[in-house]
């Protein structure tokens, strides 16, 4: 893949992930996300390990990582993700992402908005190193599933 020919807005991948666990640090994620309790003044922290599949025209494989989620006192959910992509042909790619989760009015689903950076020294995938990626998606916190589409910007 020649990154110089990759136009802004080019589709890079879609991902379907499953949160496998939630580690709480003094506040119940279920109560907080359902609005049963307000965020504490100092905010709240959660770690959410996840795994899933990534599929795109030039990038296919599995992703494993953790979202180090911070909920601010004003209720804003801030995503901070570190993960590893293992491609179908056996290469590893480092994945980092920061963003926000926005509650959709009248539903239990949230919108996800994040920037993504990828890194590898693999010759086959180093074209990814030069990309800045914008990821958009939805999370259903009841079943812990997220669906994301990512584009070069």
Report how far the terminal alpha carbons are from each other. 16 Å
Order of helices and strands: EEHEEEEEEE
Overall strand count: 9
**What's the shape?**
elongated
> Which strand order does the major sheet show?
1-3-4-5-6-7-8-9
Concise description?
This protein is mostly beta strands and 153 residues long. The chain has one helix spanning 29-33, and strands at residues 11-19, 23-24, 44-55, 60-71, 77-87, 92-103, 110-119, 133-140, 145-152.
Key phrases:
about 150 residues, mainly beta, 8-stranded antiparallel β-barrel, 9 strands
Explain the overall architecture.
Helix content is 3%, strand content 55%. It is mainly β. Strands 1-3-4-5-6-7-8-9 form an 8-stranded antiparallel β-barrel. The protein is elongated and about 50 Å long.
Topology:
Blueprint: E1 11-19, E2 23-24, H1 29-33, E3 44-55, E4 60-71, E5 77-87, E6 92-103, E7 110-119, E8 133-140, E9 145-152
Antiparallel strand pairs: 1-3, 1-9, 2-3, 3-4, 4-5, 5-6, 6-7, 7-8, 8-9
């Amino acid at each position: 893949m020649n990154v110089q020919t990759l136009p802004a807005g080019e589709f890079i991948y879609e991902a379907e992930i499953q949160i496998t666990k939630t580690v709480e640090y003094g506040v119940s994620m279920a109560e907080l996300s359902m609005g049963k309790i307000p965020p504490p003044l100092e905010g709240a922290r959660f770690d959410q390990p996840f795994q899933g599949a990534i599929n795109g025209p030039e990038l296919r494989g599995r992703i494993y990582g953790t979202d180090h989620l911070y909920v601010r006192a004003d209720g804003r959910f801030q995503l901070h993700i570190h993960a590893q992509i293992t491609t179908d042909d056996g290469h590893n790619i480092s994945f980092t992402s920061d963003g926000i989760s926005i509650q959709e009015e009248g539903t239990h689903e949230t919108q996800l908005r994040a920037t993504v950076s990828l890194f590898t020294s693999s010759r086959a995938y180093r074209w990814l190193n030069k990309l800045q990626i914008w990821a958009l998606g939805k999370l259903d916190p009841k079943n812990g599933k997220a669906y994301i589409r990512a584009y070069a910007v």
